[in-house]
Every structure is written in C-alpha cells, then in structure tokens.
Amino acid sequence: MLLEFISIHSAAFMGTVAVRPAVPWRRALGIVGLGVFYSLFAGAFALIFRTWWPLGAFWLQTGNRLLGVRGSRSTDGSEQAFLKASWLASVLLYILCCFATAFLPLPALGITPAVIEGLHLPGSGLWISAPYRVLAFGVLYYALTAWWELVGPRWLERRGSGQS
C-alpha cells in the first residue's frame, strides 16, 4: 500500500514530464530526477522495514506506469487526457479500497493471531494488527485497476468522439 501510494503520487508528475513537448533526453532526465526524488521515500520505507526490496519494487512500478506512455506517441493531446484519467482513477480506486478494507467486515481468511505474531510487523495500526485487510486491499485495488485499464481507454475514446 505504501509503495502504491508513492507510485500514484509520482505518476502525476512523471506522466506530465513524459508527455510534454521536449527533446527526449530532457524528458528522460526529468523522469529520472523525479524518480530519484521519490526513491527517497521508498528508501525511507526500506530503512523502516529493514529491507531493500521497496526500492526495486518502486522502480518496477514506475517503469510499468511509464510503459503506457511510451506505447503511444500521439500529438493530439490524447496521451495527456489518458494520463489524467488514469491517474484520477488510481487515486479514486486507492481511496475507495482503503475505506472499504478499513470499515467493512472482512474475514481473516486463515490469518490467525499466531500467523500475525509470526510476521513480526513493525509499528501498529489497523493494517498491522489485521494484515488480511492489506491483502484484501491489494486484491480489490489491483482487480479494479485492471478493469479500468481494460475498459477505461475504450470509454475515453467513445467519450472523446462524442458517442455514448
């Protein structure tokens, strides 16, 4: 959840840099600069959890998000519209899934108190004391995100052409 939050936050800025009219090396430099900046946050989580995988995962997520930008090079502004809509969908789905998994009754699905104790999770809070909620968040958020990526672009194309 923490890495996805960083990824969503950085996507708005990196996406804007990726589609702006500039020579490719300037866009690449801007994206790398923003990536280094956001790596500080991923690095902080890596230090807190005493593992370095969050940095690699952040860069994999960042690369995945930027693949959609590189796949199309239209000049009519449709990339910017797609980026804005995708970013907004990510934010809304993230918030929706956070609230759903925080407030709805969810089964533990076999994650017993002994399993939770064995995880040795640092800190406290709802998602630490009930890690099955984080798992539910991930399943729900990524399923809805996949649905958006399948349906959203077609919906935007129909909307942009004036069809309903």
Summarize the structure.
With about 160 residues, the protein is mainly α.
Unreliable spans are none
Radius of gyration (CA) equals: 18 Å
Secondary structure tally, helices: 7
Structural class, from helix and strand content? Answer: mainly alpha
Whole-number total of structural domains = 2
Helix content: over 70%
Task: Spell out the helices and strands N to C.
Answer: HHHHHHH
Shape: flat
Describe the structure.
- With 164 residues, this protein is an all-alpha fold.
- It folds into two domains: 1-71; 75-164, no CATH class.
- Helices cover 78% and strands 0% of the residues.
- The chain contains seven helices and no strands.
- The protein has helices at 2-19, 24-49, 53-70, 78-103, 113-119, 126-129, 132-160.
- Helix 1 (2-19) packs antiparallel against helix 2 (24-49).
- It is flat, with a radius of gyration of 18 Å.
- The model has no long low-confidence stretch (mean pLDDT 83).
Topology of this structure?
Layout: H1 2-19, H2 24-49, H3 53-70, H4 78-103, H5 113-119, H6 126-129, H7 132-160
Helix pairs in contact: 1-2, 1-3, 1-4, 2-3, 4-7
What keyword list fits this structure?
single chain, 164 residues, mainly alpha, 7 helices
